[in-house]
Amino acid sequence: MYSDEDLALSLQHSDQTALQPLVERHHSALIGFLYRLSGGDRQLAEDLAQESFLRVIRSIHQYRYPRPFKPWLYAIATNIARDYYKSADQRHTLNMNESDDLNISAEEPEDAVLNTDEEQHLIQALGVLPAHQRETVILRYYQELSLAEIAEAMSIPVGTVKSRLSLGLRQLKTQLEKEIG
Question: 167-180: per-residue pLDDT in tens?
Fold first, then answer.
């Protein structure tokens, strides 16, 4: 089995068959990341994930082997999400009532977690955090990226990652205590 980095290098050398294993390995987790980042908007998360993989294809020439692929992919996805929310015709409103109408398939393991009440409370609490803290917390605790991988994905020093995690977790705890009462 080839590593993500080997597949990315193959894709860089025009081997289109390398794309499918990369998508299969990362699609579900990337949607989970974007779902949390978007405040529980499943359709938006799927659209952003699709755009992320399209950007991978268009930008593969910028990938530098043997740089870890996963942080590179999450940097792309994070930037796409940021761009989405920066666009003039989009407003970032966390409307959790919309998530009640989701038709989530139980086929993906990520989806089983997304449907719980606790997860919905956590998504709401994450939505209160500033974007840079929310991104850092999600990358660390949901996507299980190391501090160094987060720093690489977000183009910030490891010390800044630690600071954002500390502040984000403190605010998250306070917000959850308010919600749970």
Answer: 999 999 998 888 77
